[in-house]
Specification:
The chain is mostly helical. The chain contains 5 helices and no strands. The longest helix has about 35 residues. The radius of gyration is 19 Å and the shape is flat. The chain starts with a helix and ends with a helix.
Length: about 150
């Protein structure tokens, strides 16, 4: 069971490549979160969301077409394990869609690209790698350290 992320380059999040005539990449040389950058990240998020929906539809179709009918118990167990992993992946992606929708809302509200903790701009490299990021790397690290400390208590 290959997922969209396994079949396609991870840097594109399983999204189809941009059209050849649109090779724009946000740059630190331009004003942060200008209209062009916002449009770029909106399109990136929408393509990612669409790819997730297509993968979910493909998984559902596959489940309907290929019911588990292996006669051998070992083969059946292996197939059930594969499908269990695939369904867990789809569940994680379902949760990811909510984060993508939240990022799209932040773009519309003019808050996208700024840390929810410090208000500082999130680096373009981080947003390129993780377009749903809500914190700078430093704020995220602090958050994770605090989370780890509170779990240990």
């Amino acid at each position: 069971m290959a997922t969209a992320l396994n079949r396609v380059d991870n840097s594109s999040f399983g999204m189809p490549a941009n059209d050849a005539d649109d090779d724009y990449r946000p740059s630190a040389d331009e004003p942060f979160m200008n209209a062009r950058q916002q449009a770029y990240f909106r399109e990136k998020l929408l393509r990612w969301k669409d790819a997730i929906h297509r993968e979910a539809e493909a998984t559902l179709s596959q489940l309907q077409v290929e019911p588990l009918r292996e006669a051998d118990l070992t083969d059946r167990a292996s197939s059930e394990t594969d499908w269990s992993i695939e369904l867990r992946t789809r569940d994680r992606q379902r949760k990811l869609i909510a984060k993508i929708d939240a990022a799209l809302r932040r773009i519309e509200e003019g808050e996208y690209g700024y840390c929810e903790v410090t208000g500082e701009p999130i680096s373009l490299g981080r947003l390129e790698a993780r377009p749903i990021a809500t914190m700078t790397v430093e704020a995220q690290e602090r958050h994770e350290r605090n989370e780890k400390i509170s779990r240990e208590d």
